[in-house]
Specification:
It is a single chain. The chain has 145 residues and is α+β, with helices and mostly antiparallel strands. It has four helices and six strands; from the N terminus they run H-H-E-E-H-H-E-E-E-E. Strand 3 (105-115) and strand 4 form a beta hairpin. Helix 3 (55-67) packs antiparallel against helix 4 (73-96).
Amino acid sequence: MTESQAREFEEAEGASLSVDLMLETFVSLAEVQDISLGVTLTIHGLLISGNIISFQKYLEGIAQGFESATGNQKIGQIIAESYRNASQEYSKVRREQEELPPRQYIHLSDARFRFGDSVVSPGTGVYWRGRLDEVDGFFLGIIES
């Protein structure tokens, strides 16, 4: 981080506490550079650990979930296809934009949830989406079981 970027972060922190600019930067990196970064978020006392991913990867992951869901396979395929179409449309719009707007949501893969000593999520983790302005704090890294 350059000195001017650090100054911008400090100035912005005094101006608004709604979204942590460092966390927003990590989310933007996932969107633009297609990186995945392990993070643990604190939201109203709940710990959420997972990998930051792009919105497009989130949509693709949800589509895969519907494809492998049990029950009515035809409905699962229709829903999966709608998520894939949304992913492709988002990709097209993103390529046409010169600059991405500020991020409002964070998307995680392999998300696990902890409240106190309790793990309240599947062992394999899930795809998760949450509002950036609801995050109380974070650290880089994933809490293992």
